[in-house]
Design a protein that fits this description.
With about 325 residues, the protein is of the alpha/beta class. Helices cover about 50% and strands about 15% of the residues. The chain binds S-adenosylmethionine.
């Protein structure tokens, strides 16, 4: 019954699971058929011809099997897809990725300048804030944070310290100079953000001096056992869209290390990780999920994580029938 409700929810969220699944099944079926039958027939134009014929036969058989009542119901269930995603997580080879965007998840930035600052300054006046960004890529996230904080709270004193393992990324971030493609790859980027963040120089977008002076970049590895000694603790820590690209055990170590960077009262921004692990480790570290527009932020994260359940970095549909869904889909956590 729970599975049926989950399936309905998945369908309501606009995913055409049936279509995706059918295609995946076709591929698996063809692959198995070709592996078993074709070696004997391979070689030369004749081999090619019989391969094509076999493909067609296999497709016909598969289409028939797929229509059988039990099978078609099964491949349309969310339960199957959850299992399929677990297989993707278990079997896919991870690869590093440098993709980033300015103001990548706009609603999460609203949360930064609203409920997150309210939480941090709850017990008194504003103090100077230290923000740490791990896995900063070419700097779009770190400069976006500085730009949003400066625009929303002009009197706030803050510094942003951003780190990556890739020297090329750090050099590019320090240059503070971006191409049109790098800036406009986010279709949600509002024009007032562009005008308050960049100056235009020779067809490039250059970060304004007053934002740039608040941000510094350096090399650091989230898996380094001496990370805390290197970067210190902070009021706000970002660790977004790279933990999912690490092997499971490394991701676990990374999250534990990141939790060690939080001040006694602090906020953690963490999107793009294995959700089961996120639930477990945020609870273990006594972090409280921030409930600000969780669904909207999750949707914005999903724009960059298509391909669930077949791709390990695919973004799971928002399903409130999942246990602990508020913690599961939250991307901002408070240490109180
Ligand atoms: C996909 S980008 C995300 C950039 C930015 N956080 C965002 O959300 O737009 C991930 C970055 O994390 C970096 N990275 C990967 N493993 C890392 C590690 N162990 N420590 C620090 N950075 C890492 C990669 O080099 C890459 O530039």
């Amino acid at each position: 019954m729970r599975f049926l409700t989950m399936f309905r929810r998945g369908r309501d969220s606009g995913c055409n699971y049936g279509l995706i699944l059918s295609r995946a099944h076709s591929r698996i079926f063809f692959f198995i058929t070709l592996q078993i039958i074709l070696p004997a027939k391979s070689g030369g134009p004749e081999g090619m011809k019989s391969r094509e014929m076999l493909k067609q036969h296999a497709h016909k058989i598969y289409t028939g099997v797929k229509r059988l009542p039990g099978i078609s119901a099964l491949i349309n269930t969310t339960a199957w897809q959850i299992l399929r995603f677990k297989i993707a997580l278990l079997t896919s080879r991870r690869r590093n990725c440098h993709f980033t965007s300015f103001l990548r998840m706009p609603t999460q930035f609203e949360a930064l300048s609203g409920p997150v600052l309210d939480f941090l300054f709850k017990d008194g006046g504003m103090k100077a804030l230290k923000v740490t960004v791990m896995g900063c890529s070419i700097g779009a996230e770190a400069y976006s944070i500085a730009s949003v904080l400066r625009s929303s709270h002009p009197d706030l004193a803050f510094t942003v310290h951003a780190y990556d393992i890739d020297k090329g990324c750090i050099d590019k971030a320090r240059s503070a100079r971006y191409t049109t493609e790098e800036v406009l790859n986010n279709e949600m980027l509002p024009s007032d953000f562009i005008s308050s963040t960049f100056d235009r120089e020779d067809g490039h977008y250059v970060i304004k001096g007053e934002i740039r002076e608040r941000v510094q970049f350096d090399l650091a590895d989230v898996l380094d056992l001496n990370l805390k000694e290197q970067v210190g603790t902070s009021d706000i820590v970002y660790a977004q869209h790279f933990l999912i690209h690490l092997e499971r055990e490394q991701a676990r170590k990374g999250i534990e290390n990141i939790c060690g960077l939080l001040n006694p009262r602090a906020a953690l921004f963490i999107s793009g990780t294995v959700l089961d692990m996120l639930v477990k480790l945020t609870r273990k570290n006594n972090l409280i999920p921030c409930d600000y527009n969780v669904e909207e932020i999750h949707k914005e994260a999903g724009v960059y994580g298509r391909g669930w359940p077949y791709i390990y970095f695919g973004c799971e549909p928002f399903m409130t029938v999942r246990k602990d869904w508020q913690r599961r889909y939250a991307t901002i956590f408070f240490r109180i």
